[in-house]
Specification:
13 helices, about 0% strand
Length: about 300
C-alpha cells in the first residue's frame, strides 16, 4: 500500500469518526455525563490504551529532554485545552453550530503553518479551502443555523477550540517527524491528564453509572475509544507524513460523512442538491492536497 494512500485513508477514517461525534456526544452529555467529566474519561481511557499499545509494539523513548517542554505545550493545546473548550461548548450550543464553527480550523491551520512552519499560502490552497467551506456550509443547512444568545458562550468556546486545535496541528508536527507519532501522542495524553484532572474530578464523582442504558454505554465507548484514542493515533501518523494544511482540510469531509451516515441509516435522503454540495467539498479538498510539496513521503523501511 502506497504511503500517500495510507495518509489519506487515515485522515478519512478520522473524519468519519468525528462526523458522528457531534450527535453521539450530545446523546450522552450533559444528561448522563457532564462535559468536564467526559473529558477526564476520554483522556484517561485513551492514555491507558495508548500506553499499553506503545509498550507492546513501539517501545520508543524521548531521547532529547529539551523536547519535554514542546511535549507539554502540545499536551496543553492538543489534549487539555481543546477538549475542555470543545465539550463544554458543545454542551451549551447545538451539534450543527459546533460542526460549522469547527470548519474554521483549516483556515487557522493555514495561517499558523505560514507563520510557524513557513509553509507557502498559495492561491490554490486558499481557493480550495474556500470552496470546501462553502460546500460544507451548504450541505449542513445554509441559512438554517441558529446562533442565538442561548448558544453564544458555547459558540465562543467551540471557536476557541478550533483555533487551539489548529495551533496543535502545526506545533506538534516537528515532534511527529522526530519521534514515533504514538510516542508523542502517549506523552501528550499523560501530561494532558494531569491538566484535565482538576476540572473533571468533581463532575466524575457525580456520575450515576446505574442510570446508563446500553445505548449510553456504547456512546461513551465510541467517544473514549473511537473519537479519542483512534483519531489521535491516526492524526499523529498523518502529521508525520503530510502537511498541516492537508490534515486540517480533511475537517470539511466531516459533514459529508455525517450526511452519508444519516442516509444509509434511513434518517435522511440523498438528493441531487446534496450530491452537488458533496462534490463541491471534494473538489475543495482536492485542490488543497494536489500539490507536489504537500505530502512528502519518506521511503518506507
Amino acid at each position: 500500500m502506497k504511503a500517500s494512500f495510507k495518509v489519506h485513508l487515515a485522515l478519512f477514517i478520522v473524519s468519519l469518526i468525528y462526523g458522528a461525534t457531534f450527535t453521539i456526544a450530545k446523546q450522552v452529555m450533559p444528561l448522563y455525563v457532564k462535559p468536564f467529566a467526559f473529558i477526564l474519561m476520554r483522556v484517561s481511557v485513551a492514555a491507558v490504551l495508548i500506553f499499553i499499545f506503545h509498550s507492546l509494539f513501539i517501545k520508543k523513548r524521548i531521547t532529547d529532554w529539551k523536547d519535554i517542554r514542546t511535549l507539554c505545550i502540545s499536551a496543553l493545546f492538543g489534549v487539555a485545552f481543546n477538549m475542555l473548550l470543545f465539550f463544554k461548548g458543545l454542551s451549551i450550543t447545538t451539534p450543527i453550530n459546533g460542526a460549522v464553527l469547527m470548519m474554521n480550523t483549516p483556515i487557522f491551520v493555514v495561517v499558523f503553518a505560514a507563520l510557524y512552519l513557513k509553509e507557502r499560502i498559495t492561491a490554490q490552497k486558499i481557493i480550495g479551502i474556500g470552496i470546501a467551506a462553502v460546500g460544507a456550509v451548504l450541505l449542513m443547512g445554509g441559512r438554517n443555523f441558529n446562533f442565538s444568545a442561548q448558544t453564544v458562550w458555547g459558540d465562543v468556546m467551540v471557536t476557541g477550540n478550533a483555533i487551539i486545535y489548529a495551533f496543535y496541528l502545526v506545533y506538534a508536527k516537528s515532534l511527529m517527524q522526530k519521534y514515533h507519532p504514538l510516542t508523542v501522542t502517549m506523552w501528550s495524553f499523560v501530561f494532558g491528564w494531569f491538566v484535565v484532572l482538576p476540572f473533571g474530578a468533581g463532575e466524575f464523582m457525580e456520575i450515576q453509572f446505574s442510570t446508563f442504558t446500553p445505548q449510553v454505554w456504547l456512546g461513551v465507548a465510541f467517544i473514549t475509544v473511537g473519537s479519542t484514542f483512534l483519531t489521535y493515533v491516526l492524526n499523529a501518523y498523518a502529521l508525520r507524513k503530510a502537511s498541516s494544511s492537508l490534515v486540517g482540510s480533511y475537517i470539511y469531509l466531516q459533514p459529508v460523512l455525517a450526511a452519508l451516515i444519516a442516509i444509509i441509516s434511513g434518517k435522511d435522503l440523498l438528493t441531487i442538491e446534496k450530491l452537488v454540495f458533496i462534490l463541491i467539498i471534494f473538489c475543495g479538498v482536492f485542490l488543497v492536497s494536489w500539490q507536489k510539496n504537500t505530502v512528502k513521503m519518506p521511503l518506507e523501511k
